């Protein structure tokens, strides 16, 4: 998750689904606790779209969200102070549709996969394996998703294929490549450094820049504002990918990712299994420190910050702030339940706005929301190494060798992020898709670094145990067992599994498990893709 929510959500609330500019004077002159009525009267919302559930949501939200700050956000938006992105990700005309090996399928007439023949990623020295880079085009929607494919260092003809997705929403999967699990890291000299623990040691890995607008991906006219649309785009990409790279079509295929990929991956997996005419099969999914069931996960911010016995660490905030969180969650839950029942922007964005207040006590500590053991630091993303990645991928030579068709690389795109929040996607439920794919016998691994706060291990464990599916009982009854790395024998964590659904607590790791525990993360993925779902010894 990209923790810029607190700085832009107030604007998102008042700009929901608005096709007309707000009349600021009319809104500012209105009486307290009547903002929804003002927006209806001002023409921003249609009256017939405001159901009783929606009105209840807004009334509850307006009782607890500071009106003055919302009005300031309205004014900032109208005067252009918000959502200014200095690195707009627009294409360079001279680089588009040139020097590409184009692949298409009849059942996707408006889609094509362009492997850039003028791209030479191997010359960057990231890895010695065979690589391919290019674009997946959705022509009728003018969307162009960038991908970079690394073959396995071991046996590419037989090793599994993994699709990796970062979250945000709106953050580049190059973060996974160069900061976590890829073939090389980028150091302070802005040079690649070989990673011996790369996940392509025993698997071929695809890094996909999605949704459109992220990283090297771009669109002139279209945008994606919800996970459901993104899932359809990724399914079409996979059909063309396995058609183009037909030699990998029979290999095991897994989808892995972290953070907001806890939204993406369940929906993508369900989209895949619903297509009986698919040309490839889904072997499993892996979700690291994901946000999947917000209703349950928000309830565990308090224990993670306040209950050392449960968290396994120490109390992070004062008792009075712990009490504040405890008092705020019930209203968060009521708002989120309405979003679950009526999943629209009008119902879900107020839930997101209110529930994010639960994060405020932790933010006051100055600690890293992605790793409770350390301060956040000066970088926007709390890690200076991510700035090195941005700098590297914006170098002209690098962009040319990768066949990038944009003039700049954007690590986390605020426009994409805003569009998802405006749509209410953040607070919507996605755990039901996990139940759906489990019923189709697709194994699921939830792994969680136990020093993360924003998508903490307690919340992930809680929603996994509450999941309603036919074999829920055997998962709930399963005992935790110790996981020892087969690489170096380290006591790496604890596993809970019924063989199909597995929860893995990763010791001494934050939000980005492969970054914090590279050796143990490699052992984790190697054992999982080999079929060891119990992490037995």
Give an overview in words.
- GO terms for molecular function: serine-type carboxypeptidase activity.
- Keywords: Carboxypeptidase, Glycoprotein, Hydrolase, Protease, Signal.
- It is an enzyme of class 3 (hydrolase).
- This is Carboxypeptidase.
- Its EC number is 3.4.16.-.
- This protein is an alpha/beta fold.
- It has a domain at 97-294 and 427-529: Rossmann fold (3-Layer(aba) Sandwich).
- It is 38% helix and 17% strand.
- The protein has 22 helices and 17 strands.
- It has helices at residues 5-15, 24-28, 35-41, 52-64, 67-78, 174-181, 227-244, 261-273, 294-297, 301-306, 308-311, 319-341, 345-355, 360-363, 384-393, 396-402, 414-422, 431-439, 457-466, 472-477, 513-516, 518-529; strands at residues 100-105, 108-116, 131-138, 143-150, 161-165, 184-186, 192-194, 204-209, 218-219, 253-258, 284-288, 367-368, 371-375, 444-449, 481-484, 491-497, 501-506.
- Strands 1, 2, 3, 4, 5, 8, 9, 10, 11, 14, 15, 16 and 17 form a 13-stranded mixed sheet that branches. A two-stranded antiparallel sheet has the order 6-7.
- Helix 12 packs antiparallel against helix 13 (345-355).
- The longest helix has 23 residues, at 319-341.
- The protein starts with a helix and ends in an 8-residue tail after the last helix.
- Mean pLDDT is 86; it is low at 3-33 and 69-88.
């Amino acid at each position: 998750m990209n923790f810029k929510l607190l700085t832009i959500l107030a604007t998102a609330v008042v700009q929901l689904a608005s096709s007309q500019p707000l009349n600021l004077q009319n809104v500012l002159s209105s009486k307290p606790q009547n903002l929804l009525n003002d927006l209806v009267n001002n023409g921003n919302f249609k009256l017939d779209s405001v159901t009783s559930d929606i009105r209840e949501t807004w009334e509850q939200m307006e009782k607890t969200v500071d009106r003055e700050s919302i009005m300031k956000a309205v004014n900032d938006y109208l005067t252009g102070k918000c959502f200014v992105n200095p690195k707009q990700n627009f294409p360079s005309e001279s680089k588009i549709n040139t020097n590409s090996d184009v692949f298409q399928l009849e059942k996707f007439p408006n889609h094509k996969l362009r492997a850039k023949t003028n791209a030479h990623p191997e010359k960057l020295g990231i890895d010695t394996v065979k690589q391919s880079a290019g674009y997946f085009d959705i022509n009728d929607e003018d969307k162009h998703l960038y991908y970079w494919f690394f073959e396995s260092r071991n046996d590419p003809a037989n090793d599994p294929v993994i699709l990796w997705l970062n979250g945000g929403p709106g953050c580049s999967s190059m973060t996974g490549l160069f900061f976590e699990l890829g073939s090389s890291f980028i150091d302070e000299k802005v040079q690649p450094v070989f990673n011996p623990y790369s996940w392509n040691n025993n698997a071929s890995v695809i890094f996909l820049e999605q949704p459109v607008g992220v990283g090297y991906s771009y669109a002139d006219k279209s945008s994606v504002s919800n996970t459901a649309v993104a899932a359809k785009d990724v399914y079409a990409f996979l059909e063309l990918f396995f058609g183009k790279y037909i030699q990998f079509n029979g290999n095991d295929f897994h989808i892995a990712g972290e953070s907001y990929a806890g939204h993406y991956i369940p929906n993508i997996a369900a989209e895949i299994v619903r297509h009986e005419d698919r040309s490839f099969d889904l072997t499993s999914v892996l979700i690291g420190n994901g946000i999947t069931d917000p209703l349950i996960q928000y309830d565990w911010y308090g224990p993670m910050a306040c209950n050392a016995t449960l968290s396994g660490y120490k109390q992070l905030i004062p008792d009075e702030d712990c009490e504040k969180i405890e008092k705020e969650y019930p209203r968060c839950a009521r708002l989120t339940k309405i979003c679950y029942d009526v999943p629209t922007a009008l119902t879900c964005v107020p839930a997101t706005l209110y529930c994010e207040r639960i994060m405020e006590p932790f933010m006051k500590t100055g600690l890293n929301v992605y790793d409770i053991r350390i301060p956040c630091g000066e970088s926007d993303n709390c890690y200076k190494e991510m700035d090195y990645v941005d700098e590297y991928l914006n170098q002209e030579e690098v962009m040319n060798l990768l066949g990038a068709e944009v003039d700049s690389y954007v690590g986390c795109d605020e426009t994409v992020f805003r569009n998802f929040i405006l749509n209410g996607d953040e607070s919507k439920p996605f755990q039901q898709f996990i139940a759906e794919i489990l019923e189709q016998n697709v194994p699921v691994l939830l792994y969680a670094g136990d020093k993360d706060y924003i998508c903490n291990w307690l919340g992930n464990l809680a929603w996994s145990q509450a999941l309603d599916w036919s074999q829920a009982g055997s998962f709930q009854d399963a005992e935790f067992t110790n996981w020892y790395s087969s690489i170096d024998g380290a006591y790496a964590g604890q596993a809970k599994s019924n063989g199909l659904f597995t929860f893995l607590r990763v010791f001494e790791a934050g939000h980005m498990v492969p970054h914090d525990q590279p050796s143990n993360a490699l052992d984790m993925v190697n054992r999982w893709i080999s079929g060891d779902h119990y992490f037995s010894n």
